[in-house]
Amino acid sequence: MKGMTVIVKKTTQILAGMIFLYGSYIIVHGHLTPGGGFAGGVMLAGAFILITLAYGSDFLNLKREEAGSTATENGSVLIVILLSVAGLLLGAKVFFLNFLPKGTLGELISAGVIPLYNVFIGIEVASSIFIIFLALVIYKEEEST
Amino acid sequence: MITYLMCFILFLVGLYGVITRRNLVKIAVSLSIMEISTFLFFALVGYIDGGIAPIVDPADPVKVYVDPLPQALVLTAIVIGLATTAMLMAVIIRLYRKYGTFDIREIKNLRG
Amino acid sequence: MNPLIPLFVITPLAGAFLIMIIGRFIAEFNKYFTSLVLLFLACISFYFLFTTGEKIFVYKVGGWEPINRVPIGIYMVMDGLTAIVVCIINLIGFLSAVYSISYIKRYTAGNYFYALFCLMIGGMNGVVLSGDLFNIFVFLEISVISSYALVAFGVESNELEASFKYQILGGVASFLILFGIGFIYWKTKTLNIADIKEAFNNGYNKTTYLFIQILLLSGFGLKAAIIPFHAWLPDAHSSAPSPISAMLSGIFIKAVGIYVIIRLFFNMFTTSEEMAILITTLGTLSMVIGVFLAIGQWDIKRLLAYHSISQMGYVVMSVGIGMILIARNTKPEIVSLAIAGGLFHLVNHAAFKGLLFLNAGAIEYTIGTRDLKEMGGLAKVMPVTSATSFIASMSISGIPPFNGFFSKLIIIIAAVMGRFYLLAALAVIVSIITLASFLKFQRYAFFNKPDNDILKDVREVPFPMIFSMVILSIICVLLSLLVIPEVRNAILMPAIEILTDPAKYSTSILVQ
């Protein structure tokens, strides 16, 4: 699809980086403030979708099968499952155990394995929503031409 | 008590939309209204009188907090609703390409 | 805390995403990997079936122990009833996966098919194994969304329309269930099934209790396709690919519909006579209306889908008779006979309906049509398909010595001993009409003489499909051994005791 006018492109250049940064902030502080993996992941996907809408898919050279996004999505889910199964092998041998040391209340690096879960679920949700957007927009326009 | 009744009325509005609308996209939007009313009901259930938001402040940690469990359940349910709506939209786009219309009275191949 | 219990959920989920990554590089990886994973799960489930007995295994996820006897973790529970349902899920899933090794050649997106298949099996295992009400909802949604995508797999206009109808009705059902869970949390402040039973023992408001029961019965009844919630079933089950039809009709409507209704209404709510009469009426209506709608069908898979509604009516009617007799405090022998008949018919129906759908898929694979008026004389050219289809048709109609006869006999005896003579008479009449319908199917498909020469180059189907059909027909014959008292006491009695004893489930879980 074709891109938009020059004003939209210039504004997107400034804004997309800030949206990405804000999404990452919400993911990483998921154990201290409301938010976490899901909400932060949706905002990350919003940054990518904004760039695709403003510049057009011809400029960005998007192929039919977006292999990169599918690989990150599947890889992140496998890492989440691996982390949860790791509780079966270390410590008290229970599924989904919190096995890293928990720090003091309110610090950024604390609460065991929960921030790691947040990061990988955030990457996974961002990849999934970007794939849904591509499947509904790019494939439609490729089949109708 | 009034707020619980309003949630239920919103649920019935969504159900009315699913039953009587003819356009496929309007049926999908009414299903979304139904699910949003359920989330509002869930979030209202956890309210305790005089409580504040359940974020622990290390300076003075002892207060009356609102129940945080329904909020976690609503977060999960929102993601499930997103997946359902995305699946529905994909099928609607393919249906438009096969039948050429959005009217549900024209899509009647399977009968009997 | 047995570490094998979470494997039922982790293995299919990890397998699905592994298939998507590795299947891009190695060509035939997805088919054999799925069959291996499901064979492994079937072996573990048989191990649990023969060692569970009277015990209830509880697995607390994350290791969160109860504080002041209030359960705060997510529980996974394995008891007698769960062991039976987990066995049929994984066994029929394995046979469908082997069948689809050669059936899937007509579709091009094989990777997605097997990934969705594994996700559906993982979701169903999660529903059956969970002891927590919201966990049931989350795994229910995982398996149901996978089945929406699988019904619309070959994207023709019929299949897309069937999937759209299925999605709208399934979506309404999911939000009814979520509303009911919200009400339960409002009144009892807990989500653990055993703890909700204790909280309701302390007194409840009668109107709210009835409202919650009606909401949950409507939501799960829509998933189980009881009359009047059956409108999506004929379209969805006839438009799906054949191994998916066998799984949808064989285990899906049982694992996410009938199993949850049985678990909630026996172990969570105290049995009252009004709800029991309502459930029995719905079951009887399903039984009668399903078979009358099925007589006039000429499409093979639509005929089999309507018969699914009728046979599920048998199970719901039998379980409802058990509930009425518990509410009236009659002798425990009649109650256990009624519930045993219901559970036995559930297991039988999974076997022979799965086999019938696999046969319909084999017929469609070779000839290419599903209309009964255009085929005939297949008994000479397809001997294995014809023999297994004959065994399955005799089983579903209730002819001795196959398994359908014994389960229907137990249901009719239980109805007569509980003095429900009208229901017993209706069960016999419906069984005779089912026999008539399947004799029509056998004659037109296999023993007729076709008037055009469609039989020119028709051969027997490839080996993986023959393997699945033969194994299922052997299981159909072997299941009739469940009527012998020693075998029945080992397998069915633990499930019946958990359902009929009002305090055993909740006290056994809360002390662990």
Structure description:
The complex is a heterotrimer of chains A (145), B (112) and C (512). Chain A is mainly alpha-helical. Chain A has helices at 6-28, 37-55, 57-60, 67-86, 114-144. In chain A, helix 1 packs antiparallel against helix 2, helix 2 runs parallel beside helix 5 and helix 4 runs antiparallel to helix 5. Chain B has one domain: Orthogonal Bundle (Helix Hairpins). In chain B, helix 1 packs antiparallel against helix 2. Chain B is elongated, with a radius of gyration of 20 Å. Chain C has one domain (7-510). Chain C is 73% helix and 2% strand. Chain C contains 20 helices and 2 strands. Classes of the chains: A mainly alpha (145), B mainly alpha (112), C mainly alpha (512). Chains in contact: A-B, A-C, B-C. The B-C interface holds B 11, 15, 18, 24, 27, 31, 34-35, 38, 41-42, 45, 70, 73, 76-77, 80, 83-84, 87-88, 91-92, 94-95, 98-99, 107, 109-110, 112 and C 134, 138, 141, 145, 148-149, 152, 155-158, 160-164, 167-168, 171-172, 174-175, 178-179, 182, 185-186, 234-235, 239, 296-297, 302.
For the record, the CATH class of chain B is Mainly Alpha
Q: What do the pLDDT scores of chain B average to?
A: 88
Straight-line distance between termini of chain B:
46 Å
Could you say which structural class the secondary elements and strand pairing of chain B correspond to?
Answer: mainly alpha
Distance between the termini of chain A: 11 Å
Tally the structural domains of chain B. Answer: 1
The overall number of domains of chain A is 1
Series of secondary-structure elements of chain B, N-terminal to C-terminal: HHH
How many individual helices of chain B?
3
Shape annotation of chain A = elongated
The topology string of helices and strands of chain A comes to HHHHH
- Gyration radius of chain B (Cα, Å) is 20 Å
Low-confidence stretches of chain A: none
What is the largest interface, and how many residues per chain? B-C, 31 and 33 residues
What structural class do you assign from the helix and strand content of chain A? Answer: mainly alpha
